[in-house]
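Hi U.,

Before I forget, here's the chain from the pilot set. I'm dumping it here mostly so it's searchable later in email.
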Amino acid sequence: MTESSRRLSNYLAERERSGRAKKIIALALLALLLLLLVWMTLNYLQNGRVVIPFITTTTEAVVPPEYLYSIAGPEGADALTQPIGVAVSASDRVYIVDNKSATVRCYDVDGRYRFSFKTINDGANKALVQPARVAEGPGGEIWVTDRRLRSIYIFDRDGAFKRKFAPEGDAPEDWAPIWVSFDAQGNTYVCDIGLTSEHQVIVYDSSGVEVARFGKTVQAKRMLEAPGGFYYPNGVAVAKNGDIFVSDSNNRRVQVFDKAGAFKYIISTSGTPRGVVIDKEQRLYVVDAFAHTIDIYNLQGKRIAGFGGNGVELGKFQYPTDIAIDKRGRLFISDRENNQVQVWGWPTTTLIPPIEVPKTPMQWVICLSPLLLFLLPLLRRKRSFVVTSDFVEGMALAEMIHLMVDRRFKWLVPAAEMDSYEGRILEGVKLGDLLAGTAHSESDVVELIEKTGITRPTAILLTMSQRAGRLATEDSDLRRSAQSMGVEVFDRMTFVDTFGGRAASTKDAG
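Structure:
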């Protein structure tokens, strides 16, 4: 073995080890990309929008949620008019309090109307009179407050009346519950404005036993005045740590209490807060009825985003009142005077919507269809050959150069040699049109020369061949070197044996 051959062999062994590692990394990245495409397709089919995983929206986000669609109900008697309260159940039903008809209407999360209900059995009262808010309670029951009837009524998920909420102990007979909601432990939170002097929040455990009561009526002249006092509390949201966030509506603020009802701090708002909710990312959403906006805060009270504004066009509100979140993280907002509930979603979010595995062959076909994109380059790709002058001359002498004229083949020569082919015609074939001058990688050429000691022209041909994957030459030494680098090599006879029949057929068909 010559010194040049030995050095080339060592260099190739080193390149093979490096190349193997690069191929493994490339295959791993390709697999991840394929999984991402499949995931995004499933996500889009089931959620109507693409969410990109691993791109998170933190509490410092400045890009607000985006409008998705609206729920307005069917035409006619069941049309949605002046919606105020809204709740989304774990079973993807949307319950909306229709203020004008004193009715609760039920929809699917995609907006398809299902049914309405208002019938109760409470002595002389046989129907809701002034329902205000709705919430899903433990076990999937639907709880509805009625301010005029001073009660909370409980229905099954299909709207059938079950009972009136009767808390254990001394129930406040003169109360007027305007809000009801629940925490993760099943505790019930009620905003009561029954007595002029006792605007308060009452907390019951899952058995209906009162565990906390806090607040009194205070009309604050300044935002931070009279902490712990309320003036028409209109909403309650509970954080993971148990802190209680109360929208102190006519005092234009949100107050925060610990789980026992002890005051902690005040969040200043821009207007008149009504409904409040906290998402899984622990972001606080506050509906501002008279600013016609929804403001978003972190739990320390820093405003991080907002959206809406007064108007009748898409994405605008007229007196929004309440807000709810579904399990996909989408926001459902009652838009009272526009007679609709608007649905919004974060453009990028860590709330990755749940997706289901396809169940039918057609669903699998649609899901996996993005993988076809990877086949298109293969179908359109030409076979590239680095070709030397002796191969071209040999094909011409054998009167077979026409076999090289095939749309499946691309013939590459070093850019510096292209001038020698321009203007030449062999067997009626213009070599300037047949061949393509191609630049080489100078760094690869220099490295190959330094590691092996071969000549520069040979190094240029070998590096170009390694990139193209094929070399056509009559030089047996050059073929051996290229073959040792993993290049597919052809001399004239090998090329004719491999492609002669197919190339001729393609030429004849053209």
